[in-house]
Each structure stands twice: as structure tokens, then as C-alpha cells.
Specification:
About 45% of the residues lie in helices and about 20% in strands. With about 290 residues, it is an alpha/beta fold.
Length: about 290
């Protein structure tokens, strides 16, 4: 009986050992396949040259996502780092953490370079975002009462731009030589004694209900669900000085203007695919200048 039990146990152990061995190759094969797939993907990604760019979310990062697809065909992979302010993208580019940025216009860049002693340059103009005058408590420009409150961006170039738009509507008159440096202190005539309130650009849409009218930057208007072409009481027109002066630009460090990867990025941003996307997505709230 003992011999029988011993024999039976030996048979079971033998079967178990065989079963264990039979599973090993399958597990090994699965691991090898996954490893091979991972290696293939890494190899494909590694074959693309990387470009890192800083941008504000709307519309810049959205436009860059389209350009990224165009760039892949040219052998480049675009990494988009998003910022929610106008200062860090330039500082980060200057410190060589980025290859380029895309969020600003030339007058802002010029002011930034002068103030921060950076050496950043534009290599392409891509689009402009019309500033618009949006209704807050007052629903029409003609209905503005004396002393009405109008909010404008508080950064130098965009405040001047907003004041020029208000001047174009006959609401104020600026000093003759104020130009793109104008602030509310350069208002020469203000018949309705309008209260011009300077607010950080990112806060303008949020404070709309607290003022009579607000002049809002295109990107922040879009984020708030506003479209200058359909929602604004007045806006900068395509043939205006703003369309060229305030075009949003692709910016790099001085000395990098002729880098092949950055030239490819500029070409991708000015491609037919990007132009079509801008026209269909933003419907006049963003206008291509190429």
C-alpha cells in the first residue's frame, strides 16, 4: 500500500513539474514580444528630432498641435509646454529650457527685451487675434452713460492697442504722439468722462460683469467662449494696423534664427493645414496672416 501511495505521489509531482515547464516558454515569449514592441516604439520616437516650444493654451497650443502633425513628416517631434502668463514663456526660452515660444506679438517682445535685457527674436508672423470691445453692464456703445467704467489690459502694448480701439469708436481722443506707448494718462479728450480701469489681461473676461464695457485680448476672449467676429461690439479689422503690428509671432533666441529645426517649425506653422484649421476652428476670432 505504501509503495502504491509513493508511486502515486511521484506521478503527481512529475505531472506538476511538466506543467510548470510547459508554462515557462509562453511567459518568456510574451515578455519578449512586449519588449520588442516597446523597443520598436522607442526606436521610432528616437528617430524624430525633438523641438520644445512654450505657448499659451488657446489658441497657440491648439494651433501647434496641428503643426506638430505636419512636422512629423519632416522628421521632428514637437513638445508643447503650456503657460498661463506672458512672462514665463520668454524667461524660460532665454534660459534655454525651450527651443522657441509662440504666444506674443512684436511690440510686447520688444518691450520685454528692453525691460528684462533678453535677446529674443521673431522668425515668423503667424496670426493675429482681434481685440474686441465686449458688453458688460452696458449692451451697446451708443448707450454708454457719463462716467461709465471700461476695462482695458494693463500691460503696456495691449493697453495702447485697447485705447486706440476706443479712439476708433469716437469714445476718447489720445495725444497725437502717444501711439503704441499710450496709457490712460495720454487721453487728451474724454467727453463722457469714462472711467478707464486697467486690469490684468487674463482677468478681463472674468470681470466683465463688473464694468460697462471691456476690451479683451483675443486669446482670453476665446477661452471665455467669446468670439470677436460675432460677439464683440467693435473689433480690430483685418486691414487695420493691428493686423500687422500685433501679429502673433514664433520667437527664438538670437543666434538660432537659421537652425534647420526651427525653420521647419516656422514652415509647419505657415502650412495650408494650419491655415485651414485656423479658419474652420476660430471663424474670425483668430486670423492667419500668411
Amino acid at each position: 500500500m505504501k509503495k502504491f501511495i509513493s508511486g502515486f505521489l511521484a506521478s503527481i509531482l512529475a505531472v506538476s513539474a511538466f506543467a510548470g515547464c510547459s508554462k515557462a516558454p509562453a511567459s518568456s515569449s510574451s515578455s519578449t514580444a512586449a519588449q520588442s514592441s516597446s523597443t520598436s516604439q522607442a526606436s521610432s520616437s528616437a528617430s524624430l528630432k525633438k523641438i520644445t516650444i512654450g505657448a499659451t493654451p488657446t489658441p497657440h497650443a491648439e494651433i501647434l498641435a496641428v503643426a506638430a502633425e505636419v512636422l512629423k513628416a519632416k522628421g521632428y517631434e514637437l513638445y508643447i509646454k503650456e503657460f498661463t502668463d506672458y512672462v514665463q514663456p520668454n524667461l524660460t526660452l532665454a534660459s534655454k529650457e525651450l527651443d522657441a515660444n509662440y504666444f506674443q506679438h512684436k511690440p510686447y517682445l520688444d518691450d520685454f527685451n528692453a525691460e528684462k535685457e533678453t535677446e529674443l527674436v521673431s522668425i515668423a508672423a503667424i496670426h493675429y487675434e482681434p481685440l474686441g470691445i465686449y458688453a458688460g453692464k452696458t449692451k451697446a456703445i451708443a448707450d454708454l452713460k457719463n462716467g461709465a467704467k471700461i476695462a482695458v489690459p494693463n500691460d503696456a502694448t495691449n493697453e495702447a492697442r485697447a485705447l486706440l480701439l476706443l479712439e476708433a469708436q469716437g469714445l476718447i481722443k489720445l495725444k497725437p504722439n502717444a501711439g503704441l506707448k499710450a496709457t490712460k494718462n495720454d487721453i487728451a479728450e474724454n467727453p463722457k468722462k469714462l472711467d478707464i480701469i486697467e486690469i490684468e489681461a487674463a482677468q478681463l473676461a472674468r470681470s466683465l460683469q463688473d464694468v460697462d464695457l471691456s476690451v479683451i485680448n483675443g486669446n482670453f476672449a476665446i477661452q471665455a467662449g467669446l468670439n470677436a467676429a460675432t460677439d464683440a461690439l467693435a473689433k480690430e479689422e483685418k486691414d487695420s494696423l493691428a493686423a500687422t503690428t500685433f501679429a502673433n509671432i514664433l520667437v527664438v533666441r538670437k543666434g538660432d534664427e537659421n537652425r534647420e529645426d526651427l525653420k521647419a517649425l516656422a514652415d509647419a506653422l505657415k502650412s495650408p493645414e494650419v491655415k485651414k484649421f485656423i479658419e474652420e476652428k476660430y471663424k474670425g476670432a483668430v486670423v492667419a496672416v500668411f
